[in-house]
C-alpha cells in the first residue's frame, strides 16, 4: 500500500482529471485535516485495526498540500473514527432490524464504507453537512436511496429532521462539529433533538475550555506557518460538560466514551496518558473528550 504522502505526490505530479480541487476554506477545509490524519493510520500496515482504502483513494485524488497546511500527520482522528465505528456497530448489534444513522458534519468520512459489512440490510444513513462540504464529498461519494445527503447546516433542522423516521431507533454522530458552533447553538440543537427524537442517542466530541480559548486568542492555533485552525468557540472542561448538557435537557443521560489509548502509538499515549487521566486536576483539562448522550423518553 502506498504511504499517504507518496499518494499525494502522485496527484501533484499528474494533470489527469482524477486530481480534484475541492475548493474548501474556513471550517469545511478542516475535513482535509481529519482526512490527512485518518489516512496516515489507514496507510500504515502496522495499524491493522483501521482499514480504509477508500479514504486513501480520496486523499490521493485531491489536489491539496496537506503537509503544508496541517504538518506531519498524526493518529488522533484515526483513533476517533475507530471509536465512532464501534459506537455505530454497537447500535446496529442492538437494533439488527436496522435503525437510522444520522451523521452530522461527515465531511469526507468514509465510515459507511468501512462499516458496510456490519450494516443491517435496508437501514438508512443520513449525512448532514454544509453545502460546500457536500459538494466536496460528492466528487467521491454519491448519495442513494439508503444514503441521503443533506446540504445544510445541522442548525437548519427543518432541512433534515423530516427525513429521519421516528418509528425506528436513531443514532446521531458528530465527529469534530460542536466545537465549531456557539454554546447557544449547541444548546438549541440539543433541545430540539430531545423534543423531536426522544430516547435517541448521540455520540460527539468536545473540547476543554482552555483549548477552545486558545483557538479564540489573538495568536490562535497555528498548526503550521501556513495554516491557522478556525475558531472553535465551544469548550467545556470534562467535569463541567455533563452538568452543562443536563442543564440544556433535564434528565438526559451522559457518559464519557474513553479514548482507545491501547491502540495508540508511543509511550506517552499508551502508558503516561492513562495515568494523567486519573489525576483529578489534570483529567479535567483533557483536551478532547468523546461523549455519549441519550435523550430522555419525554421532556416532562
Ligand atoms: C473537522 S471536519 C470533520 C469532518 C468529519 N466528521 C471527520 O471527522 O473527518 C468539520 C466538519 O464540520 C462541518 N460543519 C461545520 N459547521 C457545520 C454546520 N453548522 N452544520 C453541518 N456541518 C458543519 C464542516 O463542513 C466539516 O465537514
Automatic annotation (TrEMBL):
Q: Does the keyword Transferase apply?
A: yes
Which InterPro entries does the annotation name?
A: Ppm1/Ppm2/Tcmp, SAM-dependent_MTases_sf
Question: A Gene Ontology MF term for this entry?
Answer: methyltransferase activity
Q: Keywords in UniProt for this one?
A: Methyltransferase, Transferase
Asked whether the keyword Metal-binding is assigned, the reply is: no
Q: Which GO terms describe its biological process?
A: methylation
Which stretch is the leader sequence?
none
Name the SUPFAM superfamilies for this protein.
Answer: S-adenosyl-L-methionine-dependent methyltransferases (SSF53335)
PANTHER family to which the protein is assigned, alphabetical: S-ADENOSYL-L-METHIONINE-DEPENDENT METHYLTRANSFERASE YKTD-RELATED, S-ADENOSYL-L-METHIONINE-DEPENDENT METHYLTRANSFERASES SUPERFAMILY PROTEIN
State the name under which the record lists this protein. S-adenosyl-L-methionine-dependent methyltransferase
Top-down, what is the taxonomic lineage of the species of origin? Answer: Eukaryota, Sar, Stramenopiles, Ochrophyta, Bacillariophyta
Amino acid at each position: 500500500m502506498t504511504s499517504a504522502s507518496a499518494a499525494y505526490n502522485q496527484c501533484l505530479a499528474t494533470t489527469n482529471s482524477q486530481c480534484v480541487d475541492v475548493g474548501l476554506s474556513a471550517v469545511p477545509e478542516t475535513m482535509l485535516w481529519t482526512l490527512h490524519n485518518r489516512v496516515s493510520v489507514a496507510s500504515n500496515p502496522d495499524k491493522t485495526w483501521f482499514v480504509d482504502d477508500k479514504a486513501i483513494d480520496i486523499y490521493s485524488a485531491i489536489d491539496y498540500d496537506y503537509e503544508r497546511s496541517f504538518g506531519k500527520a498524526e493518529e488522533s482522528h484515526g483513533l476517533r473514527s475507530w471509536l465512532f465505528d464501534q459506537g455505530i456497530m454497537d447500535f446496529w448489534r442492538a437494533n439488527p432490524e436496522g435503525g437510522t444513522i444520522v451523521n452530522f458534519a461527515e465531511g469526507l468520512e468514509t465510515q459507511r464504507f468501512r462499516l458496510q459489512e456490519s450494516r443491517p440490510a435496508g437501514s438508512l444513513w443520513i449525512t448532514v453537512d454544509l453545502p460546500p462540504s457536500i459538494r466536496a464529498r460528492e466528487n467521491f461519494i454519491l448519495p442513494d436511496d439508503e444514503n441521503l445527503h443533506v446540504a445544510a447546516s445541522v442548525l437548519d433542522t427543518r432541512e433534515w429532521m423530516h427525513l429521519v423516521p421516528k418509528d425506528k431507533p436513531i443514532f446521531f454522530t458528530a465527529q469534530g462539529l460542536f466545537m465549531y458552533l456557539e454554546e447557544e447553538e449547541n444548546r438549541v440543537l440539543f433541545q430540539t433533538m430531545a423534543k423531536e427524537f426522544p430516547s435517541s442517542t448521540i455520540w460527539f466530541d468536545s473540547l476543554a475550555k482552555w483549548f477552545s480559548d486558545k483557538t479564540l486568542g489573538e495568536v490562535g492555533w497555528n498548526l503550521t506557518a501556513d495554516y491557522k485552525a478556525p475558531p472553535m468557540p465551544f469548550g467545556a472542561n470534562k467535569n463541567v460538560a455533563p452538568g452543562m448538557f443536563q442543564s440544556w435537557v433535564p434528565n438526559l443521560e451522559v457518559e464519557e466514551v474513553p479514548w482507545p489509548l491501547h491502540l495508540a502509538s508511543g509511550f506517552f499515549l499508551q502508558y503516561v496518558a492513562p495515568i494523567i487521566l486519573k489525576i483529578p486536576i489534570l483529567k479535567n483539562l483533557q483536551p478532547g473528550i468523546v461523549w455519549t448522550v441519550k435523550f430522555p423518553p419525554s421532556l416532562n
